[in-house]
Design brief:
Rossmann fold, 12 strands, Cobalt-precorrin-4 Transmethylase, domain 1, alpha/beta, 5-stranded parallel sheet
Length: about 325
């Protein structure tokens, strides 16, 4: 007889509007211009999604130099430095920008503060494509990066009274609050965003994990190792008291030995993980256990972002 197990499905989970839009952009570009369509960097951080688009005719590259000038190129949802579209224009390329509108909002914010003579402090992870893209909106030295409250202590801005801060959209809400407090304590006049830069989807997925955490012995987050928001969900689960909080890409990555004696498991997915992978994990549990499923919904998302006009029209122009 199968052992009984409660599965708590956190909602919202999985795809967000920005990811949805980015994938749609690649699919529509292939439909419009035929294959191959080039994509600079993984369109979203998920191997299953990337492999699926590759099968349809997308070619993923890390640099614009790897793209021929006679094929369209798409910029990933994470955003790109200003130099990238400038280079595409100089090479006379057709390009479509799939940057998430909530990331673009942060870019616009950084630009506005820069025009007002402020130096930016960015709360983010070094080397993440979104951080690189946002810092690349302004000239070198205009954006200072902090990753922890300790980094704030050693910041050397040009003028302590002329600062503003922005954040990567996929950070841990709780960690970011600590860094913001440190910034405000050291630089009392620092200007923050009108509304939090951390995007609604990141916040909602973290809140849902906090809601399921008290009921579960283990948490599985479906997502990619290079997905910032997925890794934050693992941390949120651990901080909320889940003794076992793990990232898995697919059902085959589940460590079943770690599930020994576990009575209840929480399941969530990062913003770039498709529902098909979530169902695959649920089915894997159903194969081994007598499963009872409970949905824990903390918010309802109905955000939708339009794709760029170039894909909605028949005209061959820059996106």
């Amino acid at each position: 007889m199968k052992q009984k197990l409660n599965l708590y499905l956190a909602a919202p989970r999985g795809f967000c509007a920005g990811v949805d839009r980015a994938i749609k952009i690649v699919e529509m570009a292939i439909e419009k211009w035929g294959a191959p369509v080039y994509v600079r960097h993984e369109i979203v951080h998920n191997k299953y999604v990337v492999d699926g688009l590759r099968a349809k005719g997308a070619v993923f590259v890390e640099n614009l130099d790897e793209c021929p000038t006679d094929r369209p190129v798409i910029f990933s949802a994470h955003g790109v430095p200003k130099s990238v579209p400038a280079k595409a224009e100089a090479r006379n390329m057709i390009y479509v920008d799939a940057t998430c509108p909530l990331v673009s909002k942060v870019h616009i914010e950084a630009d506005r503060h820069h025009m007002n003579g402020l130096q930016m402090v960015m709360i983010g992870h070094a080397g993440h494509p979104e951080t690189i893209g946002t810092m690349g909106q302004l000239p070198k030295g205009e954006v200072l990066l902090v990753e922890t409250p300790n980094d704030v202590a050693v910041l050397t801005p040009r003028d302590e009274s002329k600062l503003a801060y922005i954040t990567q959209t996929t950070l841990s809400v709780d960690d970011t609050i600590e860094i913001v407090k440190a910034l405000q304590k050291r630089f009392p006049t620092i200007i923050g965003p009108h509304k939090e830069d951390i995007c609604y989807a990141t916040t909602n997925r973290q809140e849902a994990v906090k809601a399921v955490a008290p009921n579960i012995d283990a948490l599985l987050v479906i997502g990619a190792p290079n997905s910032s928001n997925s890794r934050r969900l693992v941390e949120v689960g651990a901080n909320a008291g889940c003794k076992y909080s793990q990232l898995v890409q697919r059902a085959r990555d589940i460590d079943w030995r770690a599930m020994d004696g576990v009575k209840s498991v929480g399941i969530t997915a990062g913003a770039s993980a498709p529902e098909v992978l979530i169902n695959e994990v649920i089915d894997a549990f159903k194969d081994r256990y007598d499963v009872t499923i409970e949905n824990v919904e903390t918010a309802v998302e109905n955000v939708e972002f339009k794709v760029p006009r170039v894909l909605r029209e028949g005209i061959n122009t820059h996106g």
